[in-house]
Every structure is written in structure tokens, then in C-alpha cells.
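Everyone, describe these C-alpha cells:
***
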Amino acid sequence: MKKLKRILYLKLARRLSRSSTGAPVPSIISENTKINGDIISEGIIHVDGQVEGDISCDELIIGVKGSVIGAVTVTKLQLYGVLNGRVSADNLFIAKSARLIGDATHNTIAIEPGAYVDGHCMRIGTPIPAEQGKPDLMLVDARKLKANA
């Protein structure tokens, strides 16, 4: 029964992808699949397996059982599984089941309580703290100035 549902889904997806009005069909990397290498796409990629390499696409969904090791450059990222690497996304969503290990640059971000994030999340265009200049104002304790005088 499962195989029949899958075949029907794939046939329907192929028909919709041929028509100009149909919704885009995602490329699916299933649970038992491991890919070593970079992936470049202009569409949607859904990862439930393992990817070791960089991914560049319009929308990326990393499922609960999915794992990506590498840099990700996307317009929209929905993270439910594991991502170990640098992220550049316009719209970033991190679910409570997710693990993000690495730095992320984003325009908008949503993080569910319970999500694991080990790295920096920076808004696109915001300078990195190490690259910022010295502050214009410096607070000094007036008591120390009187004691030294």
C-alpha cells in the first residue's frame, strides 16, 4: 500500500511540474540516502537523509531525521534536524527538534523553545562584533579619577 501511494504521489508530482500553474515539486533526499558533494538547485530541496557538502537552493527543508554537514545558502530554511555548518538565509526557522551548529546570517528568524543552537545568529548587514570600531563613548568611574589625581 505504501508503494502504491508513493507511485501515485510521484506521478501526480510529475504532472504538476509540467504545468505552469502547478506548485513546484521538491527534490527529496530520503532517509536511507547519503550524498557526498555539493547540491545546487533553483527549487525546493527536502532532506531526510544525510548530505555532506554545500547546498544552494531557493528553499531547504531539513527533516527531523535529516542531517547536513556543510555551508547552506538559501532564501528560506526550515530546520527540524541537524545542520553543522554556516548558514546564509533570508528567512530562517529553527524547530524545537533541531540542532544548528555553526553561524547563521539571516534577515528574519524564528526559533522554537527547545531548539539547540551553538553559534552566532546575525542579521544580514549587521557588522560582526570583531569588525566594529571602538565605541564613541567610554564610561569611566569618577571615583577612580579622583583617587588617581
